[in-house]
Amino acid sequence: xxxPIQEFHAPPPPSAPAxxxxxxxxxHLMPYGIGLxxxxxxxxxxxxxxxxxxxxxxxxxxxxxxxxxxxxxxIPLPKTKGDEEPAMxxxxxxxxxxxxxxxxxxxxxxHPRWLAAFLTIAILNAIYAAAFVQRVxxxxxxxxxxxxxxxxxxxxxxxxxxxxxxxxxxxxxxxIQRVQTAAKSFVGVFxxxxxxxxxxxxxxxxxxxxxNFWQTFAAVFYAYVPIAVVSKATSMLILYLKSPDDIHxxxxxxxxxxYDNLGVLFSPADHPVLYVLGxxxxxxxxxGLWLRAKGLQHAGYKVSSGAAWGVAITLWVLALLLxxxxxxxxxxxxx
Length: 335
Description:
By secondary structure, the protein is mostly helical. 65% of the residues lie in helices and 0% in strands. Helix 4 packs antiparallel against helix 9 (213-241) and helix 9 runs antiparallel to helix 11. The N and C termini lie far apart (101 Å).
């Protein structure tokens, strides 16, 4: 007969959570930063020496880009626990961001890689910009821009008007200048996204959340991918279906997709402020707002839904106010 009194065994202590691994720096960016800075410096010198036409602006842009990457190499990467899912490939993230955005943003929390999104957005912008110039023609764009510039608050001195006209026309006609314009657009995409990411990071911290800069940077990039793909693809289709005479030389340079928002209810020439206000009330605008909020919420360490939406809406309102100010100051360009 067995002893009814069983020996008591204390339950094993709960397993300790996996310790966070020490985060390193984004040191892999340093060689690229140095390389771009050197290339920019060389082009800048050649531009000053008038060996490369337009090289001053291009060289300065690339040198600045290289400096940003060099400084970014000192920013720590996010801490990890070692049990995260493997990093998704760039192709997988580009496809999943349309159907499984939450999964993509959660993967970016531990693996904030942004190159695929950056190249997608920058290449789409460059292709559409080149097609727009070819379709609308450099002469029409230059004549319209200079005519409006002459009556704007930033009108250059009379002796500079002719020079400005020649420079603008050459930037759209000379092959080397067109290549430089496309290259500078890559710099513009990177710098603009870095600025937006910095503002988002400050907003998240102000709302009490925890987020790494590279998490924010990658989330902002991938949140814009669906908007860029839909907008540029649709605009390319409209560009070749619509008569060039019906395309605005300034307003349509970014997109020809105007029927997804309330901007179509107002004339940009007669009501520029209402036109800008209506343009941000639309399907793509709200879709982008939702994606940014989801990105901040799921890509960060500890960001509540309320904080993510608060940051996204705040930046949306600031962008709207800034657009209304520019529309008021430069309403002539919208006529």
